[in-house]
TrEMBL record:
Its EC number is 5.3.1.1. Gene3D superfamilies: Aldolase class I. SUPFAM superfamilies: Triosephosphate isomerase (TIM). It catalyses: D-glyceraldehyde 3-phosphate = dihydroxyacetone phosphate. GO terms for biological process: gluconeogenesis; glyceraldehyde-3-phosphate biosynthetic process; glycerol catabolic process; glycolytic process. This is Triosephosphate isomerase. It is found in: Cytoplasm. Coiled coil: none annotated. Belongs to the triosephosphate isomerase family. It comes from Streptomyces albus. One of its GO terms (cellular component) is cytosol.
Amino acid sequence: MRSIPATCSPPIPTSNRHGTAMTTPVSLTSTKMNLGLRQTENWIDDVLLPRANALGRLHFCACLPYPLLPLGVRRFEKTGLTTGAQNVWCEAGAVTGEVSAGLLAEIGCTHVMVGHAERRRLFAEDDRLVARKARAASAAGLTPVICVGEQERAGRTETVTQVRRQASTALRDLPAGAAAVVLYEPAWAIGSAQTAEPHQAAAVLSALQQETPDHVNPTLLYGGAVTAGTYSSLRRLAPWDGVALGRAAQDAAMLDDVLGELLEPARP
């Protein structure tokens, strides 16, 4: 198990457009619908809060189901950890069952995921709807986490083309200087034990850097079967700004190993 460095880092600069990773990586996780109320309380109290200093240095955000968002906001107060939602609707009004970006901001959320592969597949969400959600989130003061990635394994050219389209559609109408995260997460890697091949992930990152409009500078994350070693492996070929965690965020030992890797001082 890796040890977690104790020294604090300065605020994270954004530098994606120049092809260099952030000084300290960034991380987030989504619990999907895998944890109930008590399980979420236990996870926050037993796994996250004892590691709040290290997680805070990663600007860690936990994306929770709607009913559990107030719990996350309360538990994370003054810890440096933040709470995000897993979905949002484009505007407030008579849309039964949906939740507006304004309401998410009002209860204390800082981030919201848009365009996750499961929503694209199960609810037929297309690039235009994802872009509307991203704009609504940004207008409400939230940071949209724009999910991109191929549904099935594909060649490098096909993957890059698809990811560029998804990202550019969502980013181009955001306000100038808007905060945003682009999360590349191949759908086939979600819940599996296989990450994207490093060379393909590097090609995707390069494409995302080229596709980013001049008026925004998003944080670029990789997600999909992330464990200890994933970030280091990908970083050798491409300067990703950080990773999104799945199972590794819920297992204390796995999380310690990943944190030790992410916070390890850069080697020459």
